[in-house]
Design brief:
The protein is 60% helix and 9% strand. It is an alpha+beta fold and 668 residues long.
Length: 668
């Protein structure tokens, strides 16, 4: 016998009227937002890994049967890193394969540059950039296979094996050399060490994904519960008419999965359509190649299925009382209560997280797992707090709106929690990211250019030569010799010289270019080189924090607006009865606002404080200090989030007016 579940589901969906269609459209919209946000953050995470892999060939790894010498050097122009790969074929050895992005191994005197560097070479005077490289009639072009970003500045220079740029290049033992210089004899370009400027990108993006997973799950859960009261009443009637629990669950799952799948597919399609625009958004070293942000068909399908499953499970989880006590649902009896076990679980998880982070040294995966555990515990804890807040507010209420809000909180703490949960969990992200890490800014080295030499005698000779070179280049500078073991200087304890340059970035670049012939083991370097190790990680952290906060508040606002609209539709009978009893519409609207403000102030304030503390623990693990100026950013984030929340709730005010225009019909 053919099952009546699907035909009956389709019939009920078609006959649900305009309000039913509104609920379905809102749920589909929520699914679209969730799928889009997840795919964007997933694309950033996977794309960051792909970008890092494309930079690994530049760091040489020693080979047993070497055929060439490779030396990595890093210089800066306009404060942006410029990666220079010097290559020399060893004599009487087999030919070395071409590096990624090149058609052949570069010959002596050949220079290949990335498209972004080629553009900069034409834009800047030769004395500020081009004179750092061998003079050529034309530059070769590095293809996309050898670049992590279209904006990346990379040069590959062919040298002779006896050229000091490869024979005397530094191996990376200096204080500031971390992953910026290296030298080895190689047989190919299969390195595994990602560039300094890309290796932290994926782990930082993964942290942002972990902070967004729970707000997206909250949004999907809110979408699944949209129209819950109407659905419960309708299914309770069917249950009393003889429908089995399995049929009721099947009908709900079919309707929710169809709406969720349609919305998730729409959000995924929007992500695919916006890939070129998303690729233009800079992250780390620059913008993206579009293909780097394509997550692939398996991940694409997995996100659509995950969002659909979340909405379906959320909708089905509301049916337990319908299946076991349909008469109670039909009579709107037995308000849902919360148990103290939620508090016990939350405290236990907090103690576990505190103990796990006490020693520091956690890996990225462990940090992500602890964040998800904390989010899950807070999701359990939130309704319990809302229930207690409702009881306390009801006991001390002095105004009708406050009393109505308190009764609503205690009667349905889970529903009230769902309204504010998005912003509450976003508050944790705001507190975590706003008080961000601070590393050494190297301000004591501002305006300085350092050249490292092999010994003190060479440093004295180079100092006299540097004065001549800078004078010929028209750069005003004071040049001093730095003695060995002077760790407070820009040379960090190595013999050499320091030129203090007068002027802006163009004068600094001109000084670096003029002093390049003196840099046998290392290219001349500036403050940017000295602080690159700290800044590369901190800048990525700041960029991910901005993106995460923006997306968190987007999801939270969508969740709040969705839940507020759903609450109006679900409670239209209650609102109709209150209007018939003489309650002004203004009082009902104030009650809705206070129903949101009470848990929002307590819970969002708590999660923001916990986020600040978590940031403090992370900073302590990195040996960094808290950025107290981030308090202003934190206050701005909280204010914007609260305003967005109230705007989302205010957006459902016309809906409240419409459903109470005819209170007698609404209450019927």
């Amino acid at each position: 016998m053919r099952s009546p579940v699907l035909p009956l589901t389709w019939h009920l969906a078609r006959s649900s009227g305009r309000r039913g269609l509104q609920s379905q459209l809102l749920a589909a919209g929520a699914a679209a937002v969730g799928a889009f946000v997840l795919l964007v953050m997933l694309a950033a995470t996977l794309g960051s890994g792909a970008r890092a892999d494309r930079t690994a060939w530049r760091t040489p790894e020693p080979a047993r049967h070497a055929t060439a010498v490779q030396a990595l050097a890093t210089t800066y122009v306009r404060h942006e890193p410029l990666t220079v790969v010097n290559l020399a074929q060893l004599p009487d050895r087999r030919a070395t394969p071409a590096p990624p992005g090149l058609s052949s191994f570069p010959k002596k005197g050949e220079v290949y540059v990335s498209p972004a560097l080629a553009e900069l070479l034409h834009k800047l005077p030769a004395a500020q950039l081009a004179d750092r490289f061998p003079k050529v009639t034309s530059y070769g072009t590095i293809g996309a296979a050898g670049l992590a970003s279209p904006d990346e500045l990379v040069a590959v220079v062919g040298r002779a094996a006896s050229d000091p740029a490869v024979s005397a290049a530094a191996g990376g033992n200096g204080m500031y050399d971390m992953n910026q210089v290296a030298r080895a004899k190689v047989s190919g370009f299969n390195g595994s060490q990602a560039s300094l400027f890309t290796y932290t990108d994926q782990s930082t993006a993964l942290l942002g994904v972990a902070l967004l997973v729970m707000p997206v799950a909250v949004l999907a859960a809110a979408a699944g519960r949209l129209g819950a009261a109407r659905r419960e009443a309708r299914l309770a009637a069917l249950r009393l008419a003889g429908a089995t629990p399995r049929q009721i669950i099947g009908m709900t799952a079919a309707e929710a999965s169809a709406v969720g799948a349609a919305g998730a597919l729409a959000g995924a399609a929007l992500y695919a359509a916006l890939l070129p625009a998303l690729a233009a958004i800079p992250f780390g070293i620059g913008s993206w190649y579009t293909g780097q942000l394509w997550v692939g068909v398996p991940w694409f399908a997995a996100v659509v299925l995950a969002v659909t499953a979340l909405i379906t499970v959320s909708a089905v989880s509301m049916l337990r009382q319908v299946a076991t006590s349909p008469l109670g649902v039909a009579q709107q009896a037995n308000p849902r209560r919360t148990r103290v076990i939620r508090l016990v679980v939350f405290v236990a998880v907090l103690l576990y997280v505190f103990q796990s982070t006490n020693g520091g040294g956690l890996k990225t995966r462990q940090v992500v797992a602890l964040l998800l555990l904390f989010y899950g515990a807070f999701w359990l804890f939130g309704p319990w707090v809302v229930d207690r807040l409702g009881r306390i507010a009801g006991r001390f209420a002095r105004r009708p709106a406050t009393l109505l809000a308190a009764r609503r909180l205690s009667d349905d703490p889970r529903g009230a929690w769902r309204t504010v949960s998005g912003l509450v969990l976003a508050g944790f992200a705001a507190g975590f990211f706003a008080v961000s890490m601070v590393g050494s800014d190297g301000s004591q080295f501002r305006g300085q250019v350092a050249v490292v030499t092999s010994n003190a005698a060479a440093a004295r000779h180079a100092t006299a030569e540097a004065r001549t070179l800078l004078r010929e280049a028209g750069v005003k500078a004071t040049v001093t010799t730095v003695q060995e073991d002077d760790f407070d200087s820009l040379t960090s304890g190595l013999p050499g010289l320091v030129a203090r340059v007068s002027g802006g970035p163009e004068r600094i670049d001109a000084a670096v270019t003029a002093l390049t012939p003196l840099g046998t083991s290392r290219l001349p370097y500036t403050q940017d080189y000295a602080t690159a190790g700290d800044r590369s990680a901190i800048d990525r952290f700041a960029e991910v924090s901005t993106a995460t906060l923006a997306l968190s508040f987007l999801v939270a606002t969508a969740s709040a607006g969705l839940t507020a609209a759903a609450g109006v539709l679900d409670r239209r009978r209650v609102y109709g009865l209150l209007r018939l009893a003489g309650t002004p519409l203004k009082v009902l609207d104030r009650a809705r606002v206070r129903e949101t403000v009470l848990p929002l102030v307590v819970l969002a304030g708590g999660t923001t404080a916990i986020g600040v503390y978590a940031s403090y623990r992370l900073n302590k693990a990195f040996g960094a200090s808290l950025d107290l100026t981030g308090a202003l950013q934190l206050a701005a984030c909280v204010a914007v989030g609260a305003l967005a929340m109230f705007a989302a709730i205010g957006g459902s005010r016309p809906l409240l007016r419409r459903v109470t225009d005819d209170p007698a019909q609404t209450a019927d």
